[in-house]
Structures are given as structure tokens and as C-alpha cells.
Design goal:
Layout lengths: L4 E11 L8 E17 L3 E6 L13 H10 L7 E7 L10 H16 L6 H16 L7 H6 L2 E7 L2 E6 L5 E7 L5 H6 L7 H19 L3 H7 L6 H4 L6 H10 L4 E4 L6 E5 L2 H16 L5 E7 L6 E4 L2
Parallel strand pairs: 3-4
Antiparallel strand pairs: 1-2, 1-11, 2-4, 2-5, 5-6, 7-9, 7-10, 8-9
The protein binds L-homoserine.
The site of L-homoserine (HSE) has 12 residues, from α5.
Length: 310
């Protein structure tokens, strides 16, 4: 075990990636939650919030706490963790805020324990945290947060995670200043899918994976279409259709709702296009008087990072 203080940088992520509801996600550069962690000789987890989000510090009600408690169930002895959390990823923004807390915490804890657990184990623990935040054990933010790049979650039971090679891509994140809870955005989804929509959807999932692996930008662009989830959820996001249309007219390969929203992601081949898309986003939301946060960043191929502090 390491008698160290570490800083964990857990990146923001885009889940679903249009056609891949609950099975696809990718990590973003530049936007990270920060956790300062150390081992303590007492079972349990102490959480100290260093931001203004007022998240609960009681471990059983906190994403970090629940994920670490799931890990501690598989460890014997007087071991626990003290964790200072600074959230730079706003909860309810749609770019994997809860997943960054959950994945960052278990990844850091595992590092302090000399990496006794596999990445699949860590995803399993972090999914318990994700369940507290959203009512569902999805891994499409957690897996790319840990692995970096694009990941396919072929199955969650049993876990089967496949990192997908891809070209370097730029991403514009458009965050209209409203909050959408993942649990609410899941509760409005239809339980049945038309076969004709399912056929189009799995064509696009296969097309997107093939396009990423072959560096085929046209195929990526054609495949970034969601026939199942976006038509239902987009009503929660003001000016969504207009934003997506004008982003694509500005040169983006495509995009959609980031996770359960309200953030919207648009993928571009180069930085200039991603910056043009950002400008369009500012226009689209100033036209309706809704404040918007925007980021231009790129694909984070590295995933969660650890920095030793002592
Ligand atoms: N796949 C999840 C959903 C991601 O869309 O509900 C939530 O961030």
C-alpha cells in the first residue's frame, strides 16, 4: 500500500454518442474533476467537498462514498480513505459529472492499494455510485473516464468493455444553462422500440464503430444519427434541433445530446471548425436569451490520471 497523497484528474465524458444509448462513450480533454486522496488506517470513507455544489458528504448518499464502499466490501482490514473533492464538472450538465466522481475515486483508491483490482472491477464499483446518482447502473461515462478515448460497453452483465481506436477529433460542448436530471431523462423514454427504428439504429452503431476504426470521417458523419432516444429527449433542451442543424452547417461531422443532456456535443475534424461551431452556439442561444456555456476541446485518449503529491 502507498503512504502517499495523490491527486486524481477524472475527465468529463460524452455518453451515448448519438446512436449508442448506454453502450458508447468517449472522454474529453481539459475538463476534469479533482480528487485529493490518501489512505487512512480506519475502515470507511471521509468525503470533504471543496466546491460550492453542496453535495452530501454522508458516504451512502454520495457517488464517491457508495463507489468506495462497494470496493471496501472486497477488502479486509483496517483500511479506509480520506477524499477531498473539487468538482469542475457541474452536476446535471450531461458530461459525466457523477461518473467522474465515481470512476476517479475508485481509480485513485486502487492506485493507493497498489492496483489490486482490474479496470473491470473498478467499473463494477463505480457503477454502484452511478446508480445512486441516476437510478441506473450504466457504464458509458465510467468506462471512457477510466480508459480514455472511445469505449464500447458491449455488455454490463457480465462486463465487456472494448476500447475503440479512433482518429484525433475535436469536440464542441454546448451547455444551455438548465439542469436535466439523468433519472428524469431516463423516466420519459419509451420502453418499446419500433423494429424499423432499431434496424436503422444498429446500422448506425456498427457504422460509427467502423468509421472510427477506419478513420473514415464520412462514415462517422453518416452514422451520428439517433432514431430512438433523441426524438424523445430533445424536447427537454431548448433550441436543440436548431443548434444541431447549424452546427452541422458550420462543418461539424455530427452530434447529438451529450449523455442525458442538457449539453449538446458536436464532433469536428479540426479545431477551426470546432471553434466555428462554438460561435454558432453562442448565436443560437443569444437569439432566445438563454445563457450558454461552451467548450472547445478534443478527444482525451489517456483517461483518468494520477499525480503523486508527496
Ligand atoms: N446512457 C446514459 C443515459 C448516460 O443516457 O441515460 C447518462 O449520462
Amino acid at each position: 500500500m502507498k503512504n502517499k497523497i495523490i491527486k486524481v484528474l477524472a475527465p468529463a465524458t460524452v455518453a451515448n454518442v448519438a446512436c449508442g444509448f448506454d453502450v458508447l462513450g468517449f472522454a474529453l480533454s481539459d475538463i476534469n474533476d479533482e480528487l485529493i486522496m490518501r489512505l487512512v488506517p480506519k475502515r470507511g470513507v471521509t468525503i470533504i467537498n471543496k466546491d460550492d455544489f453542496n453535495l452530501p458528504t454522508e458516504p451512502t448518499q454520495n457517488v464517491i462514498g457508495v463507489s468506495i464502499l462497494a470496493m471496501l466490501e472486497e477488502i479486509e482490514g483496517e483500511i479506509g480513505f480520506e477524499i477531498e473533492s473539487t468538482k469542475n464538472i457541474k452536476p446535471g450538465s450531461g458530461i459525466g459529472s457523477s461518473a467522474a466522481s465515481a470512476a476517479g475515486a475508485v481509480y485513485g483508491a486502487n492506485y493507493l492499494l497498489n492496483n489490486r483490482f482490474s479496470n473491470e472491477d473498478l467499473i463494477r464499483f463505480a457503477m454502484c455510485g452511478e446508480e445512486v446518482a441516476s437510478g441506473s447502473k450504466h457504464a458509458d461515462n465510467i468506462a471512457p473516464c477510466i480508459y480514455g478515448g472511445f469505449t464500447l460497453i458491449r455488455s454490463t452483465a457480465p462486463l465487456d468493455i472494448i476500447p475503440i481506436p479512433s482518429p484525433f477529433l475535436y469536440v464542441t460542448i454546448v451547455h444551455p444553462q438548465i439542469e436535466v436530471k439523468t433519472s428524469d431523462a431516463r423516466s420519459i423514454l419509451k420502453k418499446q422500440v419500433l423494429l424499423s427504428d432499431a434496424v436503422k439504429q444498429w446500422g448506425n452503431v456498427g457504422g460509427l464503430i467502423a468509421g472510427l476504426m477506419k478513420n473514415d470521417y464520412d462514415l462517422i458523419s453518416r452514422s451520428l444519427v439517433d432514431h430512438v432516444i433523441e426524438p424523445v429527449r430533445s424536447i427537454l433542451i431548448p433550441n436543440f434541433d436548431e443548434m444541431k442543424k447549424r452546427g452541422i452547417e458550420a462543418g461539424a461531422l455530427g452530434g447529438g445530446i451529450s449523455g442525458s443532456g442538457p449539453s449538446i456535443f458536436l464532433i469536428s475534424k479540426d479545431q477551426k471548425t470546432a471553434l466555428d461551431v462554438e460561435k454558432v452556439a453562442k448565436d443560437v442561444y443569444s437569439e432566445i436569451g438563454l445563457p450558454v456555456f461552451t467548450y472547445v476541446t478534443n478527444l482525451n485518449k489517456r483517461g483518468v490520471q494520477i499525480i503523486e503529491m508527496n
